[in-house]
């Protein structure tokens, strides 16, 4: 059954023309662990790779969980931004990361650590990183995952924190239905409605059938594979039906991103 779109989602996805990918920077941020941040980064990196024929940059700054780095075909660069002694941002490493992004026109995705959320937000804010990137001709997007169920409030708090620190940023909201649904559509939540002009678009991670699509998707992830690894290169232990389901699932996710970038 096709879900109807709210006015907020329609405006975000239709009024804003599809942006090009060159000179775009995508920060994926969420303070709530296990919210689906790395899944969003994983899907976004695959979209960038497909749309640019591999001419993109991907970074994994999560010191505790190098999930994105585990997908070998995505060519992710791991960077530990936290100084282990001070437990603060190592400014020199962050500077190197930003310099590398600015030195190329290729789009980039940065998967940030949930445990370092506040430190990274503070550094980006106090160092005017978004302004520096924009002055260099970059268009910056902040991708925020919002869960439903019990963790909805926590994930929305992260969005509030980001809005307070970066009120002029462009946001992409990932609606993660893995943990359940909300009685009130996210687009009708006052926080979202009040900040509709800051939202570039929405991506929905629909709850999958646990016995079929979800099982195949999780198996692919556990094996450190991408959609193309399985569908095109025949990697992993997947039959014809499994591959067919993953092909359809790839289209569901990446088509949403294609409408935004």
UniProtKB/TrEMBL annotation:
InterPro entries: P-loop_NTPase. Gene3D superfamilies: P-loop containing nucleotide triphosphate hydrolases. It comes from the Bacteria. Keywords: Plasmid. This is CobQ/CobB/MinD/ParA nucleotide binding domain-containing protein. The lineage of its organism: Bacteria, Pseudomonadati, Pseudomonadota, Gammaproteobacteria, Moraxellales.
């Amino acid at each position: 059954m096709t879900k109807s779109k709210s006015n907020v989602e329609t405006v975000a996805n239709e009024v804003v023309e599809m942006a090009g990918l060159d000179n775009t920077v995508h920060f994926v941020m969420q303070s709530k662990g296990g919210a689906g941040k790395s899944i969003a980064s994983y899907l976004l990196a695959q979209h960038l790779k497909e749309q640019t024929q591999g001419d993109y940059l991907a970074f994994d700054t999560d010191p505790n969980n190098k999930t994105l780095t585990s997908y070998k075909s995505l060519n992710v660069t791991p960077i530990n931004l936290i100084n282990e002694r001070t437990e603060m941002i190592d400014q020199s490493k962050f500077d190197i990361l930003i310099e590398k992004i600015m030195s190329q026109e290729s789009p980039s995705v940065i998967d940030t650590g949930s445990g370092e959320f506040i430190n990274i937000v503070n550094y980006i804010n106090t160092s005017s990183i978004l302004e520096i990137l924009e002055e260099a001709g970059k268009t910056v997007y902040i991708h925020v995952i919002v869960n439903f169920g019990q963790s909805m409030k926590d994930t929305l708090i992260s969005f509030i924190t980001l809005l307070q620190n970066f009120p002029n940023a462009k946001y992409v909201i990932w609606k993660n239905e893995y943990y359940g649904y909300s009685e009130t559509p996210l687009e009708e939540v006052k926080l979202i409605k009040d900040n509709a002009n800051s939202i570039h678009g929405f991506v929905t991670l629909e709850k999958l059938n646990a016995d079929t699509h979800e099982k195949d998707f999780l198996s692919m992830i556990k094996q450190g594979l991408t959609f193309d690894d399985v569908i095109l290169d025949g990697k992993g232990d997947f039959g014809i039906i499994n591959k067919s389901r993953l092909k359809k699932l790839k289209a569901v996710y990446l088509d949403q991103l294609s409408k935004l970038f």
